[in-house]
Amino acid sequence: MTDLPTFIAGLPKAELHVHHVGAASPRIVSELAARHPDSKVPSDPEALVDYFTFTDFAHFIDVYLSVVDLIRTPEDVRLLTYEVARDLARQQVRYAELTITPFSSTRRGIDERAFMDAIEDARKAAEAEFGTVVRWCFDIPGEAGLASAEETVRIATDDRLRPEGLVSFGLGGPEIGVPRPQFKPYFDRAIAAGLHSVPHAGETTGPETVWDALTELRAERIGHGTSSAQDPKLLAHLAEHRIPLEVCPTSNIATRAVRTLDEHPVKEFVKAGVVVTINSDDPPMFGTDLNNEYAVAARLLDLDERGLAALARNAVDASFLDEPGKARIREEIDTYTSAWLAP
User: Fold this and answer.
1) What Rg do the C-alpha atoms of the chain give, in angstroms?
2) Which residue blocks in the chain are alpha helix, DSSP H?
3) In degrees rounded to 5, what are phi and psi of residue 206?
4) Are 292 and 249 contacting, i.e. CB atoms less than 8 angstroms apart?
5) Virtual torsion, Cα 18, 19, 21, 25, nearest 10 deg
6) Is the CB of residue 134 less than 8 Å from the CB of residue 142?
7) Is 216 a catalytic residue?
8) How far apart are CA 119 and CA 47, in angstroms?
9) Backbone angles phi, psi at 168, to 5 degrees
10) 43, 77, 148, 259: which has the fewest Cβ within 10 Å?
């Protein structure tokens, strides 16, 4: 009898869709809440379970922003970043692209240079101690409007501020009432500066939002893309052009983007030949982690060890890691899987 949870726990992985603040463990959120007692976020880890129960996507955004408000000093930033990397390493994540929203911190008064120094110091320390390579995606908080887009792209393209680990440019937050095309000039500037385009799209709106992300924002990967299953032409386009979807199953249930796991469209994505990567999004907020998401994918897609290893390779292939780094992790995945399956 196979022991898939144990196999998954040891499987070398890459994660491409995980948020900086959203990945804060209850222990870290509690510590930050205790540092800042004027916050409405509970400092009791057990109370956080109820606090992180969402009625809909809008409620999730409200709760998420309340946790963002706990990040008030460079020391908070450094603590959070280092501990998130530690949690990734515990799950055998060899490479991660961590989505960071600098506007959310700089508008609260954290000095831009101090913010960049804090994340870079944590990134380098974590890689040295845990071996996990972390890179940054700076994203626009869509709910904050075009002022946040201008601020984010300015920081991302200013050579005096741009951190060494920055590889991509994204767009998060609510989709309803936040059309993608208005962000085209900002993505154009980011792409011209050498950054990859990875906006969220089609999570809580229809497939037209994904089309907008592709045509207007020149997306190289799509965050979520849940509604893509509603448009066969879109699925065919994604498959033909090998544009990966960053799928986060438990997140989609927690935010009510999908009603139940059994209704999740990941099966339709795979059937259509779309490249799928498995991710955790905001794991502690959703009561999950990357290992659990792989277990969910195994059930939904009826995968064995080889199928799970192929999913892990998908994430490596879809990443913005350099080719020697990709080859190294692919070899780790293959060696681990072969050893596990050896008689």
Assistant:
1) 19
2) 4-10, 26-35, 45-51, 57-68, 74-90, 102-106, 112-130, 146-157, 184-192, 207-215, 232-240, 249-254, 266-271, 290-301, 305-318, 323-341
3) -80, 180
4) no
5) -10
6) no
7) no
8) 28
9) -150, 170
10) 259
Q: What is the pLDDT of residues 44-103, one digit of tens each?
A: 888 887 888 888 878 888 888 888 889 999 999 999 999 999 999 999 999 999 999 999
Buried b (16+ CB within 10 A) or exposed e, 72-104: bbbebbbbbbbbbbbbbbebbbbbbbbbbbbbb
- For 18, the enclosing helix (H) or strand (E) is strand 13-19
Amino acid identity of 42? P
pTM of the model: 0.94
Give per-residue pLDDT as tens, 193-215: 999 999 999 999 999 999 999 99
Task: State the chain's maximal CA–CA distance in angstroms.
Answer: 59
Catalytic residue among 203, 220, 246, 305: 203
